[in-house]
Amino acid sequence: MAPDEVRVHTLAEAIGRLRTPDAAEAFGPLGDERLLAVDVESGGPTLPGSADALRTRLARLPCPTVALARGGAHGAVAKRWAQAFDVVVESEEELARVADTAARVPIAAATCAQLLRLGAWRDLEAGLVAESLAYATLQAGPEFAAWLEARRAAHPPRTDPAEPPPVRIARDGDRLHVTLDRPARRNAFSAAMRDALIEALALAAADASLREVQLDGAGPAFCAGGDLDEFGTRPDPATAHVVRTTRSAARALAALAPRVVAVVHGACVGAGLELAAFAGRVRVRPDARFQLPELAMGLVPGAGGTVSLPRRIGRHRTAWLALTGSAIDARTALDWGLADEMAPA
Amino acid sequence: MSTGSPAPLKPGTRLRSTVCATEVMVIQAPDTPVALTCGGAPMVPLGAPEPAATGSGPAPDAGGGTQLGKRYADGSGRLELLCTRPGAGTLAADGVPLAIKSPRPLPASD
Question: What's the gap in Å between the CA of A207 and the closest CA on chain B?
């Protein structure tokens, strides 16, 4: 969808439209508009109504709600209203990226927005359960099915039963070094890697004399995301939900967070980013780039990212990464607080 | 060869090999005493004032090695050790080698 096709409402228009009881039906996957975009600088400081009242009405919409703040997300006017919305964009170009996602995968976009509105990420377990439920819902949906069909047509799944262990661990005194080690696959996060990472973290959990756990990746990338060759191989979405909440690398990392330093480079994408963000400290190499690609697949982040990212960068920027699908660099990650320190190249 | 400590093991207890670098933590233990060996020699409490390792290394039939972070269990399901430092010796309980306990297989969830 080209930028000029996205309808941008003024605040007054939006408030008027939302007053009708069936406003929600005009928006979202079943409505005529795939998102609600509002120019939050259009009303001026004298506009009646409060951001809280607007937020309550916007929360009914089964679609992303987008605040357009050309003067920047941190301007006084934007700040007054932005809290009512799912995501803040600073240009028509950014808005077009959100609109494109909402047009291509409206169910995933709506579900992502609704998930983050819950605020469940404030409680680790509640957040992981909520995310997994949303993920399972989308695993059963038409957008993921379409993505999977196209993926399998273009890339028949590869399996290598003789693959070496996907995680390497070494002990050096009171430090444990945990390395994701599928370099030929850019450390794609597979079920085997999940199990090996959890096993490695269980060692540190049991042995309190391990004062620091360094988590990094071998090869060109920290972790390029979930292993796409495994996508669609889960037994069924309901059982997959149970698997995610039974054996969770996110939970294991969060429990150890004060002792964990993630050192990330290259692609830090999807599950790679979501898991790294649980670390108490995230050290980035200058070539690191960060991205949440799940929505384009008809999904939401499913490795804990809707918990770990809001905790570091807030729900708006988490939604921005998910809904735009855009990558950010190491410098931006530091500015946002997604990462804590720069490591040497 | 000694028969090892006669007292029952307690979860959380840390032991080391006297013939290799292996160290373990007891995760689960039966109520009855178990003679734990590594590399064919009795294991001793970590930090115990024991004589230094002999340097002779594991016995020839007990040199399979231990892997960091792996859990080792006997057939009863009541004894489980976590390897906190790897070494060259094989862990055994009452003379029977312990096996690596792998996590229950769970499918991919994507």
Answer: 7
Q: pLDDT-based confidence at B1, cuts 50/70/90? A: very low
The single-letter DSSP state of residue A27 is B
Q: Is A300:A294 a contact under the CB 8 Å cutoff?
A: yes
Q: Do A233 and B110 touch (CB under 8 A)?
A: yes
Contact B110 A195 (CB under 8 A): no
Q: A203: domain CATH number? A: 3.90.226.10
Q: Is residue A201 part of a domain?
A: yes
Q: Would you list the DSSP string of A276-344?
A: HTTSSEEEE-TT-EEE--GGGGT----SSHHHHHHHHHHHHHHHHHHHH---EEHHHHHHHTS--EEPP
Tokens of A146: 């379409």
Distance from CA of B75 to the nearest CA of A (A): 21
Domain boundary residue, one of A104, A138, A172: A104
Per the domain annotation, does A301 fall within a domain? yes
Residues A300 and A153 reside in one and the same domain: yes
The token pair at A214 is 């360094």
Interface of A with B in 115-154 (CB under 8 A): 139
Q: Is residue A20 part of a domain?
A: yes
Structure ipTM over 0.95, yes or no: no
pTM of the predicted structure, to 2 decimals: 0.94
Domain that holds residue A173: 124-342
